[in-house]
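Typical record was shown:
=====
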Amino acid sequence: MASFENQTIKEADRYESPECWRLTREQLLNGTAEDFHTLRAEVTPVQERNAVARKKNKVALDFKKKLDARIIRDRVSGSTQITLREFLLSEDFCAPYLRISANGGPLLSDVALAIVDAIDGAPITTIDDETHQRIFGCPLGMLNRRRARKYLLSAGGRSGKTSRFLACVAVYCAWTTPLPNLAPKEGAFAFFSAPTKEVAVRIIRFIEGIFTTSPVLAQFGTASTESAKLVRPDGKKIVFRVSAKGKLSGRGGTCVFYGVDESEFFLDSNSFDLEEQIKGAEQRVVPGGMVGIVSTPFIEGEGEMQRTLQRERGKHKGALCIEQVSTRELNTTWDPTGEVEADMLAKPGGDANVRREIYAIPFPKGTKRFFNTVKLREALVCLSNRALKPIAVGAGSDLGMRRDGCALVIAKRYQDTMIGVPRMRIEHPTDGPLVPSVVCSDFAAVAREHGAAAVAADGVYAETYREHLNHAGLALLDAPTGREGKIGMFTAAYQMFADGRVCLGDMPEDERNDLFDQLSRITTKKLPGGSEEIIVPRRIVRTEADAAQATTDHCDGAAAFVIALWASGAGAGVIRQPGSPVSVPEQVKPVAPAAPPKVRGVSFGTAPKIKGWGR
């Protein structure tokens, strides 16, 4: 019989589907008409059986959806009266999320369960009396047996306090708080404040993770970039909103939860009054809702949290107060070998940083912030006169590679004595140690782009750095080291801010806010004999749902910043060696000479006032 390829190719295409697995294109195109009709007769009943099977599957899927919906309704009907502990440990709600963040450890540690029971007003049975005295300030069994309306938690970094005791508790309040007076189409809200936008937005990411992993909440909750929404089975809608330093008002509407993250680091009281914000929110949180404040401690007695903890310790009349909860007590899988803690201890000021960052013991009274936060805030909006050509360009760098980050800062000194800071580049070891060759070559390219003749740095990775800088035509300048060198550079930077000569407004907004955060964390304290110690603390720069994977740095950008100021010519009191590769022109005379101020025996120039620039 004749071939029928041309006549049947379109008809053959219909059978290239899974149910016709026995037929191949070659069989259909190369066979005879008789073969084709025989095979088509075999295929027809297969198609009919598949059609029947698909119909049965659709009926089964529809039944399963209805059954799942009924199961969820049954779960929901009994879930509005559950306790916080039951909500957190329930497989229907937070347990799947907590299992991921626990990283192989218990969903909630014994100390975490004790805190949850205290919030619930339930008896505490998971810790001993000594631990109870330390974190609650009273003997075991002496806590008020009532559900907390307001609680404060001071805990170590990377402990998961934000994800567990802000995000999870906020979702619990949104799900269970009675809202009988909420009018139709009127929404309630849960509101969060944080020192920076990045810290605020991460709370929404935690809430999104809770919604995604919960088989019940996944049916009712959604999240966007900076907000989340929960529409309860009773039709009540709760919106989760966040802000940096109260830019969104928490004073309007019906509030089921108000949370503050990292409350110890709200530094600028001129632009935002955290105490007043909390007072306003407390009055607007409906019965059944809560106010939660969590933070790593900073300086004893300073800030709203520390003042409340001192006032309420052991009493718990106005708020449930929990303090000195270490990282390991909440996150049992963090640093199992002790390697991270040992590395922190080995660095200058390590003992104070370990006590604060891991064991939640604040810096003692008498510790002061090194930089004036008001002057820092003024520098954020100060712009340099870019119509002028810089007379010196300084590049400062601080390299960490493994646990700390690597930072490069560019500083440009102008004829009017102002110093502009146009760029800060920071690399963090988020997915493993950084590669020295890659970081050094990238930093060299940035420094050359801004016209620097050299990069100033300490001795870390000096040979690798020097090699890549030389390839870029730059030199490596040894920055002052040791205690005196560090104090000299920081003191010079302090005076530059005091004189209003630093222009951070030249930087991109995210970079200058990050630098502000780092500089504002640096503290100083007096030592026996009258000397002074500068403490550069660690900070969390990225927090995942898994707290064990959070990333920290040693304020590397701040360290690179003071080195960059020194390299640009602001290093008064720090003598450069002859022949330094950084080119610094002759001394610039101020337009309006004035008696320079004296700071610890070091003399500094006074900036002239130039109309329209940086004042």
